Amino acid sequence: MKQLTALSVALVALTTASLHAQKFPGLALTPPMGWNSWNKFAGNINETLIRQTADAMATNGMRDAGYVYVVVDDCWEQMSRDKLGNIVADPNKFPSGMKALGDYLHANGFKFGLHNCAGTKTCAGFPGGRGHEFQDALTYASWGVDFLKYDWCEHGTANSEETYKTMRDGLATAGRPIVFSLCEWGDTKPWLWAKDVGHLWRTTGDIYNCFDCDFDHGTWKSWGVLQILDMQDGLRQYAGPGHWNDPDMLEVGNGMPVNEERAHFSMWCLLAAPLIAGNDMNAMSPETREILTNPEAIAVDQDPLGVQGFKYPIPATPVIPGPRQPTAPTKDGVEIWFKPLANGEWAMGILNRSKDAKSVTFDWKNETVTDSLSNRDANFATTTYHLRNLWTKSDAGTTQNPLTAEIPGHDILLLRLKPVH
Ligand code: GLA
Question: pTM of the prediction?
Fold first, then answer.
C-alpha cells in the first residue's frame, strides 16, 4: 500500500511536471541565424547536399558571421513510420542517418535543425508529428537536434495553441535544449499566445522570391519582400529576446538584383528577424556573400537590446493586429525606419520601395524619434549623432547637417547612429 502511494505520488509529480513544462529558457536571446534547405532546394535534399552546404559555410564566412543553424526542411522523412511509430529518415537520401548528420554538423561548429509538422502530414505529404509529439521529441533529442521548425499542414480541426504546447512539452520532457520554431503562418496570431511556447513564430505565409509581387497557388498565396514587410505592422511589441516574430527565411542569393537583396536583408535586420539564408551556399556570388556576411548589418539584427524596428513616424492610430494580409495596395514611395540599439545607438533605414531613384532630405533638427515600447527617444536638437553608412562601411557625417541622399530604386540607405559624447 505504502509502495502504491509512493508510486501515485511520483506519477502525480511527473504529470504535474509535464503539465507545467516550459519552453527551453535562455535560447535565441538574439534572432536565430542559419541556413534552411527549402527556399532553394525544396524536396531535392540529401545528406551530401547538407554536408556540402556546411562545408561551404565553414569556409565562405557564413558560419563565422553567425549562421550556425543548418536546418533540413521538408522531405527528409521516409514515407511511413516504423512498426513502433518512430519517425524514420529516408535511407536513400540520408543513408548515414540523422544522428551521423548531427554529429557532422556539430563537429564543424554548426547546430542541427530539422523540420516536421504539427499536423498529421507535412506539407509535402511525409509523416507529421500529430499524436507522436513526445516520441518524436525523444528521437530528435537522440539525433542531437538543436532547432525544430514545426509546420501547420494537415492540422484538421486541431487547436494551434494546444498542439504547439504539446510539442513544447514533448521537447521539454526529452530534455535537450531545442529552439522551437513555430511555422503556422500567422493564421491564429501566434504572437498573442506563443511567447511561452516557442522561440520564434512565422507571422505570414511563405515568402516568394521577388521584391514586390505575390504568387497565387490557388488555395494560398506566397508573398514578396514588400508584401511581407507590410504584414509586420502592429506586431513589434510581441518580439524580444527568446521570442521573435519571423517574417520567413531570406531569398537573398536566389536571383533578385543586388539592390533588392540589400534592401530585403536590411529590412530583415531592422525587424530583428531570424536570419535564415535560403540560397545555394556552393554557388554564391561575391555580392550576395558580401550582403549576407556584412557584420555591421548583422549587428543591427543581433543587437542585444532585442527591440524590433518601426516605421517612422509611428502611426497615430495603433494598427490592430489581425489576419496577415497586405494592408493596402503597395505604396510607391520612401519609408523611414528606426530600430533602437543598445548603448543609446540607433539603426535607421531609408527604404525606396519604388523602382525609380528618389532624393530624400531628412533635417534632423526638426525630428524627434520617440519609441514608447523601448522607452527611448532621439532628440536631434539636443543630441548629435555620428552617422555610419553600413553598406559603404564608411562614416557619413553627423546629425548636425540635414541628410540628403539619392536612393536608387528598390534600394536602401542603412545607417547606424551613435551619440557624440
Ligand atoms: C510550409 C512552410 C515552408 C516550408 C514548406 C515545406 O509551406 O511555410 O517554409 O517549410 O512548408 O513543405
Answer: 0.93
